[in-house]
């Protein structure tokens, strides 16, 4: 308890909602769009309001979760919903790094984030804490899967009613990983952008807190913790280069915001960090706009196995492009075949089973290295945001089968011989 | 010739709190002019100084984003439903 108290003593720096386009300010309510120019609202802070400055020591004395950064998050309560979210491993890569020819590669592993094994637990912990402060009793979301898992799990933990909307064609693991918590689930006949549009229309009619619509300014702030944690875990230092997946573009922009806030509050030295984004070719509106040097996004209709990042009409796409450009990073896309290879590469070199979004990120990392866009000694952090057990369909048929053997020594010996001579995909699930 | 327009919450102050408005117009461009006549001030909220739709405003005709159709030239017919949706959601 003393740990928590140490973290509470700062008060709240929450100041206002501010339009990212025109700068208009709004009260800290459940609203996400500027009434004047339709631009997105973002939370602004006044850190001078805190009773004590935020220090490395005060953060280290906090809980072993995202709530050690509570002073940077858009909540006022002393009792946030803390289900152990965050503080996931930052691994120094050896085998993947060697294979790629990198000397300073780190993997931020949110495939093991708590409680639902994706980075979404960060944003949902923040959004639902804020939803309770704003008086919502029902929470909802438009989701490609991971967000639905997280919203349903954390809502039930917090005693909130929950109704989630997903595209009807999601992977079985993502659907089951939502249903188990007992929310109302609407499987919409359409792609994510259509789900999102429906939810935008529902959001204001039922008085629900939609984590990624009317609570979006608060929700998205949770992703900043992926920036804070990496800086802290690197020994209070920023990396040289980060590679992260791009869906709506929000995560990417918030990692950037997180790094800047740490610099502005004197927690880390300022340093140029390059930001590179990863998309699946079958849904790459941000990568296309980047390549064509456009400052607007042409929406696309998604067609990729990387369903969790298949957003054809990405809300923060233009901001992601701004950041990639001004940090001397890049945005790249890869094919579905490369995504599967990326998933296998990470699993076989580092023992991390990521979902398709992580495969996308690893494949883009490889592509950037091959193109000479990452220097071998750059301190590079690659963000793995989801767990492969949820998207098993994507790799079935590409990873071989176990040998079926009799409980006899000679059967085992024959199978072992075959395993050494045959290619893995030629293994047969017949008795050896 | 009448088209139903779904008005998002941020603009309902200009439509006397109506969530739907009936309008005329053979295209999205004409519809914008018709909306402006019925609800003065609405066009400036939806379009920039050059008359182009703001980058965070999405128009849908019968559930299809007009950027997959013909943008502001997209033709409208009697009974069509046009939705105006803020782009900022999701992710």
Q: Which fold name corresponds to the CATH topology of one domain in chain A?
A: Rossmann fold
Strand arrangement in the largest pleated sheet of chain B: 2-1-5-3-4
Termini separation of chain B comes to 38 Å
Taken in chain order, the helices and strands of chain A follow as HEEEHEHEHEHEHEHEHHEHEHHEHHEH
Low-confidence runs of at least 5 consecutive residues of chain B: none
Rg measurement of chain A, Å: 22 Å
- Structural Rg of chain B: 12 Å
Beta strands of chain B, count? 5
Cα shape of chain A: globular
Secondary structure: helix percent of chain A: 25-40%
Backbone structural class of chain A: alpha/beta
Distance between the termini of chain A: 58 Å
Average pLDDT over all residues of chain A: 94
**Any idea what the CATH architecture of chain B is?**
Roll
What number is the mean pLDDT of chain B?
91
Please specify the SSE layout and strand pairing.
The complex is a heterodimer of chains A (432) and B (91).
Chain A lengths: L1 H7 L5 E6 L5 E2 L14 E5 L10 H5 L29 E3 L2 H6 L4 E5 L10 H14 L4 E5 L3 H13 L2 E7 L4 H8 L4 E5 L3 H11 L6 E2 L5 H6 L2 H10 L7 E5 L4 H15 L9 E7 L4 H7 L25 H10 L4 E4 L1 H15 L5 H15 L9 E5 L24 H13 L11
Parallel strand pairs in A: 5-13, 6-7, 6-9, 7-8, 10-11, 10-13, 11-12
Antiparallel strand pairs in A: 1-2, 1-3, 4-5
Helix pairs in contact in A: 4-5, 5-6, 9-10, 10-12, 11-12, 13-14
Chain B lengths: L2 E4 L13 E4 L4 H11 L3 H5 L10 E5 L2 E2 L15 E6 L5
Parallel strand pairs in B: 1-5
Antiparallel strand pairs in B: 1-2, 3-4, 3-5
């Amino acid at each position: 308890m003393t740990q928590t108290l140490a973290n509470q003593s700062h008060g709240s720096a929450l100041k206002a909602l501010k339009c990212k386009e025109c700068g208009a300010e709004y009260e800290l309510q459940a609203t996400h769009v500027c009434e004047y120019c339709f631009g997105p609202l973002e939370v602004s802070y006044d850190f001078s309001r805190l009773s004590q400055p935020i220090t490395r020591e005060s953060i280290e004395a906090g809980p072993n979760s995202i709530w050690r950064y509570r002073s940077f998050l858009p909540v006022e309560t002393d009792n946030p919903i803390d289900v152990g979210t965050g503080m996931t491993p930052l691994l120094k890569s050896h085998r993947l790094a060697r294979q790629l020819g990198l000397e300073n590669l780190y993997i931020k592993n949110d495939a093991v984030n708590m409680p639902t094994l994706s980075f979404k637990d960060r944003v949902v912990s923040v959004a639902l804490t804020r939803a309770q402060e704003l008086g919502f009793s029902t929470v909802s979301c438009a989701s490609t899967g991971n967000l639905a898992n997280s919203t349903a799990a954390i809502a039930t933990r917090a005693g909130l009613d929950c109704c989630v909307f997903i595209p009807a064609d999601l992977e079985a693991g993502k659907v089951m990983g939502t249903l188990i918590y007992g929310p109302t689930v609407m499987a919409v006949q359409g792609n994510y952008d259509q789900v999102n549009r429906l939810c935008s229309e529902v959001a204001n009619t039922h008085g629900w807190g939609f984590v990624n619509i009317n609570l979006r300014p608060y929700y998205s702030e949770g992703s900043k913790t992926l920036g804070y944690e990496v800086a802290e875990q690197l020994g209070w230092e920023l990396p040289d280069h980060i590679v992260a997946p791009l869906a709506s573009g929000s995560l990417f922009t918030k990692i950037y915001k997180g790094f800047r806030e740490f610099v502005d509050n004197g927690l880390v030295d300022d340093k140029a960090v390059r930001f590179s984004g990863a998309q699946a070719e079958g849904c790459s509106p941000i990568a296309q706009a980047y390549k064509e040097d456009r400052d607007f996004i042409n929406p696309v209709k998604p067609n990729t196995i990387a369903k969790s990042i298949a957003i054809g009409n990405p809300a923060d796409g233009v901001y992601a492009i701004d950041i990639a450009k001004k940090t001397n990073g890049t945005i790249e896309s890869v094919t579905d075949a490369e995504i599967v290879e990326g998933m296998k590469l990470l699993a076989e070199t580092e023992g991390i089973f990521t979902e398709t979004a992580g495969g996308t990120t690893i494949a883009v990392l490889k592509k950037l290295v091959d193109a000479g866009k990452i220097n071998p000694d750059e301190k590079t952090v690659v963000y793995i945001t989801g767990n492969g057990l949820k998207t098993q369909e994507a790799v079935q048929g590409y990873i071989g089968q176990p040998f079926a053997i009799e409980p006899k020594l000679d059967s085992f010996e024959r199978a072992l011989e075959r395993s050494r001579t045959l290619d893995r995909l030629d293994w047969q699930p017949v008795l050896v | 010739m009448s088209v139903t327009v779904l008005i998002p919450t941020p603009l309902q102050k200009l439509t006397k709190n109506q969530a739907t408005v009936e309008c005329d117009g053979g295209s999205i461009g004409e519809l914008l002019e018709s909306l402006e006549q019925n609800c003065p001030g609405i066009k400036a909220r939806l379009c920039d100084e050059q008359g182009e739709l703001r980058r965070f405003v999405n128009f849908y005709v019968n559930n299809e984003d007009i950027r997959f159709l013909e943008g502001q030239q997209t033709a409208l017919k009697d009974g069509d439903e046009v939705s105006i949706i803020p782009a900022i959601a999701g992710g």
